């Protein structure tokens, strides 16, 4: 191996470590924010807060799609054309963010009514927050497409640190649902400003030309939205159909599920590039095995000491939830597998499985609307629906593991 190759590999590894650390910090802060909320808010308020976090995750799929489309466009071009396309990407992020915010403002009265919030201003604050979140998605795509790993790590930190730190500070001092949502929105705005300062040099001197990015974002959102909808609908349904106290208890169970869902995220990130070429077959089987093993291991550990886990994450007022934690752990393990499946099929741009996920969402809504007598009942319904959908996805991913990726799309305007 030449010296240049060694240097490039060293830089790639170093950049990868920076990104991994920044993602890890963001996840730790997000979990800390949820733990503080569980202790600072009443069970009824925490149930509403958990439902709002689920809506943010679902709505943020547009930002993730903006990141994916932006990165794909920028990475395929060089020179002045890249500066032009990067300028167009930032303009696209603004247009997309404005449209998403307008949509959530339009439905804010329904959000306020359905989640039984403390007032319409909370739903309006939620809607406003989608503008900076989408801008952050655009900034992440710009840094990712430009292959600037240090900048990418910085943008990931700016997207997580201000938002979580401000929300935690307000929860500890004011401890109301409105203050927590204000902290999330204001923190996202601060993060978007920092991200803009980090990436603006990549389009300096460029001119925002015509691009197809805006037309591609809805298609990218479609696949991601199905994944996030199914894995987050249960907490929203719990808030809508369970009592406020039971919804708060369900929110505590979801903390366990989310930790296990996102813990093996690095597997999908590392495997993605290998699932678009001849290494796809082996990588698919190995990746699925690792994700499944991590999920089962976490579920087993939680089943051994559920009382300890519940004491750490929520405190004694939720002690009655200890017996249900293994169920939520299995929900999280299945969510991790489903995430890997979706990324594996996205690698070959196979969208034929996505309607199965949407069908699962419909079944979940219908079943919970009929059977919602307890936290346990809703959790078992979620486990069954996600289990069936995930098994179908795993079967399809394995069946298509030798199928080559389709040709790259054009990034020209």
Properties at a glance:
mainly alpha, 0% strand, single chain, globular, disordered C terminus, 413 residues
Short description:
By secondary structure, the chain is an all-alpha fold.
Query: Strand tally, please?
Result: 0
Q: Mind describing the biggest β-sheet?
A: none
Global outline: globular
Cα Rg: 21 Å
User: Order of SSEs, N→C?
Assistant: HHHHHHHHHHHHHHHHH
Model description:
The chain is an all-alpha fold and 413 residues long. The protein has 17 helices and no strands. α1 packs parallel to α8, α4 (79-106) runs antiparallel to α7 and α10 packs antiparallel against α15. It is globular and about 60 Å long. The two termini are 38 Å apart. 52% of the residues are buried. The model is unreliable at 406-413 (pLDDT under 50).
């Amino acid at each position: 191996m030449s010296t240049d190759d060694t240097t490039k590999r060293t830089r790639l590894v170093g950049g990868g470590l920076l990104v991994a650390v920044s993602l890890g910090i963001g996840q730790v802060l997000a979990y800390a924010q949820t733990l503080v909320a569980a202790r600072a808010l009443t069970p009824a308020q925490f149930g509403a807060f958990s439902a709002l976090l689920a809506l943010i995750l679902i709505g943020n799929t547009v930002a993730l799609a903006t990141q994916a489309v932006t990165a794909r466009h920028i990475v395929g071009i060089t020179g002045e054309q890249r500066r032009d396309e990067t300028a167009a990407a930032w303009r696209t992020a603004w247009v997309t963010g404005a449209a998403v915010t307008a949509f959530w403002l339009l439905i804010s009265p329904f959000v306020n009514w359905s989640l039984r919030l403390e007032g319409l201003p909370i739903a309006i604050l939620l809607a406003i927050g989608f503008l900076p979140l989408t801008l952050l998605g655009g900034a992440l795509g710009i840094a990712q497409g430009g292959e600037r790993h240090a900048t990418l790590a910085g943008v990931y930190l700016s997207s997580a640190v201000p938002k979580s730190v401000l929300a935690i500070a307000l929860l500890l001092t004011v401890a109301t649902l409105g203050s927590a949502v204000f902290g999330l929105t204001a923190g996202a705005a601060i993060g978007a400003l920092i991200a803009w300062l980090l990436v603006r040099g990549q389009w300096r001197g460029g001119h925002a030309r015509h691009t197809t990015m805006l037309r591609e974002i809805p298609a990218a959102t479609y696949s991601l939205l199905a994944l996030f909808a199914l894995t987050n609908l249960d907490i929203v349904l719990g808030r809508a159909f369970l009592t406020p106290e039971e919804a708060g208890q369900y929110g505590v169970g979801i903390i366990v599920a989310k930790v296990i869902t996102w813990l093996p995220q690095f597997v999908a990130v590392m495997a993605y590039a290998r699932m678009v070429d001849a290494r796809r077959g082996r990588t698919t089987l190995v990746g699925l095995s690792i994700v499944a093993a991590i999920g089962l291991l976490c579920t087993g550990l939680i089943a051994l000491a559920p009382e300890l886990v519940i004491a750490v994450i929520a405190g004694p007022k939720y002690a009655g939830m200890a017996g249900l934690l293994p169920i939520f752990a299995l929900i999280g393990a299945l969510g991790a597998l489903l995430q890997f499946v979706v990324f594996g099929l996205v690698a070959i741009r196979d969208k034929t499985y996505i309607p199965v996920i949407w069908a699962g969402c419909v079944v979940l809504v219908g079943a919970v609307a009929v059977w919602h007598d307890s936290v346990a009942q809703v959790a078992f319904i979620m486990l069954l629906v996600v289990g069936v959908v995930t098994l179908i996805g795993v079967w399809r991913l394995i069946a298509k593991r030798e199928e080559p990726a389709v040709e790259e799309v054009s990034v020209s305007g």
